[in-house]
Design a protein that fits this description.
Largest sheet: none
Distance between the termini: 40 Å
């Protein structure tokens, strides 16, 4: 709003100087100092504006973006608060910094945000953390990935136990005749030692390989990256699915309500709930079909 005012300031001043607008001959225009202060305020608030646009306009504003944005805003406002400038600008940055420090301060919030940022290949280096914090995040990811693997294995074992067994009355399955390769080399290559690694060991190996991989560009989609590299990091990919599916903002849900309000109008009040769901789905997926067609 301040930027719009600065942009339209000549027209606004001309309108305020009009006799039809002025009352009792008072001067309604802003002074040069007021305009200069407004320009400095717009410059001071620009990082907050950019962060808001990132979370509002991005097609996939996942949870992983919050921690880097929060750390960068804290750094910028702290530096600007002590830098040389007008008292108004220093006060604005100081107030913003004091408010941001209070946010995401609980242990649960930090754990979720930091893990999500690490599982985003754009921010996996975690440059805004100390070395101790980075190692703690790595250890938590390895432990949770191994625990998730154990849970998946136990669920699969239960599913196999519930699978109906073949009826014994049908008789045993016909035996296959061994091939010539089995007859010739079977005695030599039958007993092959297979090294079974623990889930924690495999998670640590994936973690090391993941850290050695080149970081993803900030303009790329982390979800597409994980879809491509899921086979290379099966344990970490499971963790990424759990964290990166969480939206970092409720704007997407608010936009659905706004779209529903545009669809269900007074002239279309007879729409059934099923048709409203279908129209909402079509409106939100208009760009999906052309992308798949290409």
């Amino acid at each position: 709003m301040i930027e719009r005012f600065i942009e339209q300031q000549p027209a606004i001043c001309a309108a305020l100087l009009s006799p039809q607008v002025r009352r009792c001959g008072s001067d309604c225009t802003l002074s040069e100092m007021d305009i200069s202060t407004a320009q400095e305020m717009a410059s001071a608030l620009k990082p907050m504006k950019d962060a808001t646009h990132i979370m509002s306009e991005d097609s996939t504003p996942t949870l992983s973006v919050i921690a880097p944005l929060h750390a960068q805003l804290l750094q910028d406002t702290e530096a600007a608060g002590v830098a040389a400038g007008t008292p108004v600008i220093r006060k604005i940055n100081l107030k913003i910094h004091e408010d941001l420090v209070k946010r995401y301060s609980s242990v649960q919030d930090k754990h979720m945000l930091y893990t999500a940022s690490f599982l985003d290949p754009r921010f996996k280096a975690l440059p805004f953390f100390t070395k101790v914090d980075q190692l703690e995040v790595h250890a938590n990811v390895v432990a949770e990935a191994a625990a998730l693997e154990h849970h998946v294995n136990s669920v699969e074992a239960e599913d196999k136990s519930e699978t109906p067994q073949p009826d014994p009355e049908e008789g045993p399955a016909p035996k296959r005749r061994p091939s010539a390769l089995v007859n010739l080399l079977g005695k030599t290559f039958t007993w092959v030692s297979v090294v079974h690694k623990f889930a924690s060991t495999r998670a640590e190996e994936e973690l090391k390989k993941y850290l050695e991989a080149p970081p993803l560009s900030l303009s790329e989609n982390p979800l597409c990256w994980w879809r491509t590299h899921e086979a290379d990091f099966p344990l970490l990919a499971g963790q990424a699915k759990r964290f990166l599916c969480i939206l970092g903002t409720s704007i997407a849900a608010e936009r659905v309500f706004s779209t529903a309000g545009d669809i269900v109008t007074a002239q279309r009040s007879s729409l059934t709930p099923t048709h409203v769901d279908q129209l909402l789905f079509l409106q939100k997926n208009l760009d999906v079909a052309p992308a798949n067609a290409q």
